[in-house]
Amino acid sequence: MSETNPTLLVVGAVLPNGSRTDILVEGGRILRTGTGLTAAGATVIDADGLTALPGLVDLHTHLREPGFEQSETVLTGSRAAALGGFTAVHAMANTSPVADTAGVVEQVASLGVRHGYATVRPIGAVTVGLEGQRLSEIGAMAQSRAKVSVFSDDGKCVHDALLMRRALEYVKTFDGVIAQHAQEPRLTEGAQMNEGALSGELGLAGWPAVAEESIIARDVLLAEHVGARLHICHVSTAGSVDVIRWAKARGIQVTAEATPHHLLLTEDLVRSYDSRYKVNPPLRRSEDVLALREGLADGTIDIVATDHAPHPVEAKECAWAEAAFGMVGLESALSVVQAAVVDSGQLGWADVARVLSAAPAAIGRLSGYAAPFAEGTIANFTLYDPAVRRSFGLEHLAGKGVNTPYLDLELPGRVVATIHDGYATVLDGALVDSSVVAASAVAASALVATRAAVARG
Amino acid sequence: MRHLLSTRDLDRATAVGILDVAEDMADVAHREIKKLPTLRGKTVINLFFEDSTRTRTSFELAAKRLSADLITFSAKGSSVSKGESLKDTAQTLAAMGADAVVIRHSASGAAQTLARSGWIDAAVLNAGDGTHEHPTQALLDAFTMRRRLHGSASRGKDLDGLRVTIVGDILHSRVARSNVWLLQALGATVNLIAPATLLPVDTSGWPATIGFDLDTAIDDDPDVIMMLRIQSERMNAAFFPNAREYSRQWGLDDERLARLRPDTMVMHPGPMNRGLEISANAADSARSTVLEQVANGVSIRMAVLYLLLSGSVKP
């Protein structure tokens, strides 16, 4: 018999709506909220001055396992997630082998369950081997134990118009969604940075905004035509925001994400030729950053997703053109969102809860996140101190990748505790030991099994 | 001067200073013994990740005339072609005691990355990085212009008021970029002529005027016309229909040559495609500075190596 996880009593947290409450967690669930709660023998977490946010859900994470374990594993990536306040991540399909069969997605999901730091929801590839030729076994992945509902060839664009149409139609069958990496491949051959005045000066091949916007325009019209759900990954340009705003006004079922780095950083950083700033889509102009923030505030952009993309050191210690695209982002996401849109007054904490938890969970058909902090729901939340400021350093990273663009930048806020399925993965700002978390995960799933048995009578 | 990475950060005084030291170096070429002892005991490494016989030879000659110990390291057939990184190659050579690294690389920014990474302590001299900059080429071009204008009275002078037209593949040209910044610092005005496909999409920040029509530019009576090499790979990537049309629209042919003033300088960084961007007559005419550019290249590279490695103003 496994031990049950300890009762947790969070005292004096401020909810996203501004109200102050205690939170009593027992048996994996939020048992009660309110003030003056007591519980004998409970582990007490003093949350005075801390903001309680629902467990963050990342719709766009590269966990790299299987195949690229030198960059990240499910364990290290989900530790990075927990330290960033996330309780669920969606793992992109560009692994080796590619997540294009039920076997691979089930393996990834089960690794997540075993390690216990976060719920790992695999994303299935749209096409076999991400090659853009034939649809992968979308039905088998949807009906597997991993219950895949997001499909993406991320890293590559599904650029063939007919294949994209078929993919949109086909996932409707399984209530799935296609998450499109919008990048016209011919317009971006050899592309290194945003195309504009700076790319011309630096002599770096340009990645024009139109290469993203033209694919989004085509795909929203395809989604309208076949009545399917479409999600746009990492929107990066002002023009894309306009196209999506237009599509939503027409009633097209499109959702969109922006990354923390596209909400904060601009292409001017590329002037250093420091490959930590090399990312796909590239950092854009400040006009684009402002348009993304506005789009996030008015709901045109539905969610923030990290596009956490860890790489080994040697993939970045080279000339710009030879460096890999991508930045790590899980550990810094909440701080960067605070810096970009909360401290500027564009988003409140209730909005942050929406764009980093409820909305991405809804797009990914992940249950348990619709009514955060309601009594009786599974306890997934994070305690965040928005008042502190820190110089972001390597010691604030938990994954294998150190390719963060925020080193030595002063960022607001710090995750103090993360509670996943009723047990702590982060306490006092530090990760709980992996053996403890794994044991907690076993106890939590035993509890679910017991409840199911009781329900069956 | 710690490194020479681009011309964009050179001001007028620094640029004129380099050109003046190059004048002193040019005098050496006319001595019976074309060699100075100045850099004896210093080690210069030519690190060429990209083939370039002309630039490499020019740097070799420059280092030898200054009595430096020189090693040329070409990527072809070396550990680089076996996948060794820029970092490892540079650190390996630095461990051998290099005082200066002359780097040619196909990636824009490679010289800056090498200089700023902390991987090595040596002075870094950019001998062409991707489609970014080629500062010694621009310096030798400016040196050539100044000598044609002022002859033996060149010292201390800039290029104030000189009108320079650069024609061709501006988009992919490190020579054009380095020239635009340096010529502006020296007081010249620059006019860039190319088909729209071979111009960057946004040149609003460039201190240059932009045009598409070579005939209009020639009618404007420039003091200098610089023709850039057209790479054969551009012809297969829809930048223009074919060589014949390019030559007709943007080539310096005999008819256009005849319309230039007798003292208009015709420049080309080489190697030339005779009959494509420049006619044989234009290349061989008295207006042409092509061979002076090659000779002056050695003087400029001597000057830059000297300034990076010895630091004082007079040799």
UniProtKB/TrEMBL annotation, chain A:
Reactions this protein catalyses: (S)-dihydroorotate + H2O = N-carbamoyl-L-aspartate + H(+)
EC number of this enzyme: 3.5.2.3
Name of this chain's protein: Dihydroorotase
Function: Catalyzes the reversible cyclization of carbamoyl aspartate to dihydroorotate.
Organism per entry: Glaciihabitans tibetensis
Database matches in Pfam families: DHOase
Catalytic residue list: 307
One cellular component (GO) term of this entry: cytoplasm
Enzyme class, spelled out: hydrolase
Family statement: Belongs to the metallo-dependent hydrolases superfamily. DHOase family. Class I DHOase subfamily.
Ranges for domain Dihydroorotase catalytic: 53-238
Gene name of the record: pyrC
From TrEMBL, chain B:
Domain Aspartate/ornithine carbamoyltransferase Asp/Orn-binding: from-to ranges: 160-308
Pfam families recorded: OTCace (PF00185), OTCace_N (PF02729)
Ranges for domain Aspartate/ornithine carbamoyltransferase carbamoyl-P binding: 2-146
This protein's name: Aspartate carbamoyltransferase
Pathway: Pyrimidine metabolism; UMP biosynthesis via de novo pathway; (S)-dihydroorotate from bicarbonate: step 2/3
Alphabetized Gene3D superfamilies for the sequence: Aspartate/ornithine carbamoyltransferase (3.40.50.1370)
Gene: pyrB
Source organism of the structure: Glaciihabitans tibetensis
GO molecular function: amino acid binding; aspartate carbamoyltransferase activity
Keyword field: Pyrimidine biosynthesis, Transferase
Entry's Gene Ontology BP terms: 'de novo' pyrimidine nucleobase biosynthetic process; 'de novo' UMP biosynthetic process; amino acid metabolic process
EC number: 2.1.3.2
